[in-house]
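Hi everyone, sorry if this is the wrong subforum. Our group has a chain we'd like a structural model of before ordering constructs, and none of us has done structure prediction before. Sequence below.
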Amino acid sequence: MQIIIIGAGEVGYHTALRLSREGHKVVVVDRDAEGIRKVNEQMDVQTLVGPGSSPLILREAGVDQADMVVAVTDSDEVNLQACRFARILAPSATRVARVRSEDYLAFFEEVGAKTLDLDTVINPERELTAQILQFIAVPAASSVADFAEGRVKLVGLKVPAASPLVGRSMAELHPKGGPSFLVAAIERAGKSVIPRGSDVLLPDDVAYVVAREAALNDVMAHFGLQSAQVRNLVVVGGGAIGRLVAAGAAKRGVKVRVIERDEARCEAMVEQLEDVMVLHGDGTDLSLLEEENIGAADVFAAVTDDEEDNVLIALLGKKMGAKRTIARVAHMGYVPLVSTLGLDLVVSPRFAAVGAILRHLRRGKVLSVAALKDEGAEVIEVLAQETSALVGKPLAQVKLPAGALVAAVVRQGEVLIPGGATVVEPGDHLVIFLLRKVLSKVEKLLTVSLEYF
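Answer:
Right subforum, don't worry. Here is the predicted structure as tokens:
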């Protein structure tokens, strides 16, 4: 595919890096020459210095040949204007824009994004909020992703040293009559691998487990993890993410407290949020945290605009006894590093935005994409087409490349954890774990098989 990315900030940079490694033809446009220089140093893509909202610059970037235009600058207005011109200059191209303004987002929900020349709106804050709320729903997991409208869960489970599964091979994980699940991948030393039957679980591995939503608690108990319901949430930071998380958690019946140092923000939250206690104070103030008994929180989330403060605040909460801790960091490259500090969940709105963009770039009937912390791996949900090489034969006979695994099959609402004898039918939803290096091969399998001709 030929893709124009407008904006060489972190979202644009990492999207371009990911796509260039996958073999797409990428052009990156930014008016900042320094940002373009960094792109040129790190990846093999075309670049252009200039305003991405300019029709002249878009033409120079080859917009008339583009399959997709992704506008992810820090300016909503620039992103929207770029997509408007792209619609005129390249009507068949898919247009994706990052939009942060709540006013704009509310208007799009009212009238529809397509009426304003957009195919998809990406909002990092909402994407990140969804991740945090998923974590709150399954607090024993280090990551959660939903597929098939929530009927299938992909959860990252950090294997405790006391887990009864430590030292067991993949072939020995499933007890008779126990919960049905599949370990799709193991993350060890920062790298994800698809395990074979003889591979064993080690302490501190992160096992990416695919299971039915209804069986999730049993699966976590099988791994030796507790899955007590979250009843008490403390959020430090009353910005867009803090407000969205607080509102979403309160709707689920969670007792929520928000700590915010800006008085005007506090007043606004009191007006906007129902069933949420708003506290004016500094989240780095140890005496305030002790006074509010932070150690009793089921989940303690630091989501201020300062990533260094967030790490410090989350570590303080962990030390004080909070059961689960979350820290928001801005830079995507910091996520793996900060994750080693013992925090339960480290999230980045930019990482969430890149994952959202990927959903619209995959070939075949791709319904959802979840990118893992190891950028070399992802999970996709696809609609099995009659023309696909995956359809009509047992999975054991499908020539899936090494590095890809069908982790779940959803058929007419029923979730199947597949084995080698499972036969995929047209219309099935497939949840597939894959390493980036085999993505193109999997995409070919998902589209048209040679036998179809």
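For your construct planning: The radius of gyration is 23 Å. DSSP finds 14 helices and 22 strands in the chain.
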